[in-house]
Design brief:
Blueprint (H helix, E strand, L loop, with lengths): L12 E7 L6 E4 H6 L7 E3 L17 E11 L3 E10 L2 E5 L11 E4 L4 E4 L4 E6 L2 E6 L3 H25 L10 H44 L6 H74 L6 E7 L7 E9 L5 E9 L41 H5 L17 E5 H6 L6 H7 L4 H14 L10 E3 L6 E6 H4 L1 E9 L4 E8 L3 E13 L4 E6 L2 E5 L5 E4 L3 E5 L7 E12 L5 E6 L12 E7 L5 E8 L3 E12 L10 E5 L3 E5 L15 H6 L15 H7 L3 H31 L12 E5 L5 E5 L3 H7 L10
Helix pairs in contact: 3-4, 7-8, 11-12
Pfam family, one: Oxysterol_BP
Organism: Oreochromis niloticus (Nile tilapia)
Keywords: Coiled coil, Lipid transport, Lipid-binding, Membrane, Phosphoprotein, Transport
């Protein structure tokens, strides 16, 4: 059997054989085998034990599952929960089926304290919180205690090995020695395999020659010597072949014994890279904030200190940023990032100065961070809405009291608040990971609506809205109202960071007595430049409740089907409607990402007003408990990763229509925009300033002017029809109608707007205000 020796190469014996009938052992050196030395007598491969190789003894990863009772509150007491112990984490769910989408909580055992009480009770304390658990029997309790203590010991050891604390601790000398030993062993095995390969070729050729000579000398007197030579050659070939097999087996054993460690290290490096990318993005945002602050007061500004702490569920990330301006002409930003789940230490310094030593920096404009407070005007909504049951609200004149000072075009543009999700998706190599980020982006557009019960202004026909954020976020957007009845808007966004988005949305809104339902019709298209992946999805139904009595509140419900038309990957997102009697998390969103064969790869979960997470599926099985006798698929997943989290609202947002930071800037006056831009709409501008009576007067004037314009166009069309002529209907200025492969009509941006803005040539624009 193949074994490794530490002797000099000239005397190294790699094959150990024993004579067929002898009691002694004989070593055959590599040199002798290469020379093809003759052997007398029959030899067989000795069954010698392989030497024990140095290896890394990692703690085993225990998995334990079962039902326990968990203390919830004094009203409900102990509730039965399904607990899963894996990888040093104790997770619990309401049912086994919930493992596919919702984890109710996770307890890291590495830092937890385990205390055993009386009568099947045990208490886990972690992060200042205590979990009171109860087993069904003393035996079951003892099994859980043993499993928890073993998992805690393993997790503590793994934490020391992987250095999850984030401190810069050098690799222990013992681990380094073990790793070097493994690599040296593998290199030795590879040398043996190479030697065996050469010997097999050499002895095989010699055996072939001997057989040929034996054939030629058949019947001669030299045949006996030739047969003896052939037997020796065959013996050498057999020994070499067996040695080759043993060398291959040893190499595979060594590689398999350490493959798990290497796979874990590879996964760890991938997570490190992901955290590093997120850290760099945060650094860029802090850089922009510093530039804005410096521009506001460049002379007296001395320092800005920011700290940002992630949510406990945000993969336990913590980051501190320190920005400082000194007497030096350079602005330096120092960021220290401490990531609890990965040992990353990042210290970056940016110096913005020219060669002459003077400050030279192009600062972006400072966006506003507040608008006038909303006046406290009382108005009976039911007195207006009671005559509108079953009607299309877009055709009913409403006072500005029920509006917010933004148009529908600006609300569409507000979907871009989390455009960094698309920037990240554009850098993804995997289309399935890209699908997860696209799904998170589709959910993020609803995060600002949770408190926004007021309706936006209906845009006038031909009204436009532009948003140029090339400097800040690398994109610019243009919207146009292409139809008035039914109201329809077209939207086009181009990003320098690798993606283009466009949509054509028609709003169908109905008043149902107790609630108002708003159904967006049309598709959203997204294409990434590098991969060519083209995604299509639609929006869900928005419902405003308590129209008659009570506080207004909004809910999102329905399904979003996202399809990658290039790879045929799909994702179905389910927005669960709110129910007072449901025990589910309010505003819950769940989804599954599947490839073109229908195989599930990721589970998405979260809420549309807070965050979305993704968990990679590692196994699936058929469970029980499905409706109508159908079996549900139970997925086993890796720990979830945060895809998106909502930004906090600005200070005093409750008095500013609950606008987000982006929404506060959408109606900010801008120079050089088209005369049809929503920022120039007088009723909307007056409402934002708190002059609601004047805003209502302007709103009535604009609506009357629009009605007269529509009647004029209809009269011209009727007159042309009587004269046998054909007059084409209203045509948008920046968009044109096209027919998709599905037969649906969609308005596509035809170009020209940004060129007209650069020339300041708005001669084609109608006077609508």
């Amino acid at each position: 059997m193949l074994c490794c020796s530490t002797l000099a190469p000239e005397t190294a014996d790699i094959f150990k054989v024993s004579p067929g009938g002898g009691a002694h052992r004989r070593c055959l050196s590599t040199t002798q085998l290469r020379a093809g030395s003759s052997l007398s007598g029959g030899y067989s491969v000795a069954s010698l034990p392989s030497p024990t190789l140095p290896g890394l003894h990692l703690p085993s990863v225990d998995t334990h599952k079962g039902w326990l009772f968990k203390w919830t509150n004094y009203l409900k007491g102990y509730q039965r929960r399904w607990f899963v112990l894996s990888n040093g984490l104790l997770s619990y769910y309401r049912t086994q089926a919930e493992m596919a989408h919702t984890c109710r909580g996770t307890i890291p055992l590495a830092t937890a304290h385990i205390e055993v009480g009386d009568t099947c009770h045990l208490v886990l304390t972690s992060g200042g919180r205590s979990y009171h658990l109860k087993a069904t029997s003393e035996g079951e309790c003892q099994k859980w205690v043993s499993a928890l203590q073993q998992a805690k010991a393993n997790a503590t050891l793994l934490m020391h090995h992987s250095d999850d604390s984030g401190d810069e601790v050098p690799v222990p000398q013992e681990d380094r020695t073990l790793t070097q030993g493994v690599l040296k062993t593998l290199a030795s095995k590879l040398d043996d395999l190479s030697t065996c390969n050469e010997l097999i070729g050499k002895h095989g050729a010699a055996l072939q020659r001997s057989l040929s000579e034996l054939e030629d000398l058949r019947g001669s007197t030299d045949s006996t010597d030739k047969v003896k030579a052939v037997n020796e050659r065959a013996t050498l070939f057999r020994i070499t072949s067996n040695a080759m097999i043993n060398a291959c087996r040893d190499f595979v054993d060594v590689a398999e014994s350490h493959s798990r460690r290497w796979q874990k290290a590879l996964q760890h490096e991938r997570e490190q890279r992901h955290h590093l990318e997120e850290t760099i993005e945060q650094l860029a945002k802090q850089h922009n904030s510093l530039e804005r602050a410096w521009r506001e007061n460049p002379t007296s500004y001395t320092g800005v200190e920011r700290s940002q702490e992630g949510d406990a569920s945000d993969e336990n990330d913590e980051a501190e940023f320190f920005d400082a301006m000194e007497d030096s002409p350079a602005i330096r930003i120092l960021m220290k990032s401490t990531l609890l789940s990965s040992p990353i230490h990042l210290s970056l310094s940016f110096s913005l100065q020219d060669t002459s030593g003077t400050n030279h920096m192009q600062l972006r404009r400072t966006r506003r961070s507040r608008i006038p407070d909303k006046p406290n005007y009382s108005l009976n909504l039911w007195s207006i809405m009671k005559n509108c049951i079953g009607k299309d609200l877009s055709k009913i004149p409403m006072p500005v009291n029920f509006n917010e000072p933004l148009s529908m075009l600006q609300r569409l543009t507000e979907d871009l608040e989390y455009s960094e999700l698309l920037d990240r998706a554009a850098r993804c190599d995997s289309s399935l990971e890209q699908m997860c980020l696209v799904a998170a982006f589709s959910v993020s557009s609803y995060s600002t609506t949770v408190h926004r019960t007021a309706k936006p202004f209906n845009p006038l026909l031909g009204e436009t809205y532009e948003l140029d954020r090339l400097d800040e976020y690398g994109y610019r957007s243009i919207c146009e109202q292409v139809s008035h009845h039914p109201p329809a808007a077209a939207h086009h966004v181009t990003s320098q960071r690798g993606w283009t988005l466009w949509q054509h949305i028609t709003i169908d809104s109905k008043f149902r007595g107790k609630y108002i339902s708003v159904v967006p019709l049309g598709n959203i298209h997204l294409q990434f430049h590098s991969s060519g992946n083209h995604y299509v999805w639609s929006k869900v139904t928005s419902t405003v409740h308590n129209i008659i009595v009570g506080k207004l509140w909004i809910d999102q419900s329905g399904d979003i089907d996202i399809v990658n038309t290039t790879t045929k990957d799909t994702c179905r997102l389910k927005f669960s409607p709110y129910s007072y009697f449901s025990r589910e998390v309010p505003r819950k969103v769940t989804g599954v990402v599947e490839d073109r064969e229908g195989t599930a790869h990721y589970i998405l979960s979260g809420t549309w007003d807070d965050k979305m997470e993704s968990a990679k599926i590692v196994d699936s099985s058929q469970g029980c408990g499905g409706s109508e006798g159908k079996q549900k698929t139970v997925y086993q997943t890796l720990p979830p990763k945060l895809l998106w989290k909502k930004y906090p609202l600005p200070e005093n947002a409750e008095n500013m229509h609950f606008f987000s930071s982006l929404a506060l800037t959408l109606n900010e006056p801008e120079e050089g925009v088209a005369p049809t831009d929503s920022r120039l709409r007088p009723d909307q501008r007056l409402m934002e300033a708190g002059l609601w009576d004047e805003a209502n007067s302007q709103k009535q004037r604009l609506e009357e002017r629009q009605r007269l314009e529509r009647k004029r166009r209809e009269a011209q069309a009727n007159q042309a029809l009587e004269e046998g002529e054909y007059i084409e209907g209203y045509q948008p200025l920046w968009f044109e109608k096209r027919t998709e492969d599905t037969g649906d009509n969609i308005y596509i941006y035809k170009g020209g707007y940004w060129e007209a803005k650069e020339r300041q040539d708005w001669s084609q624009c109608p006077q609508i205000f």
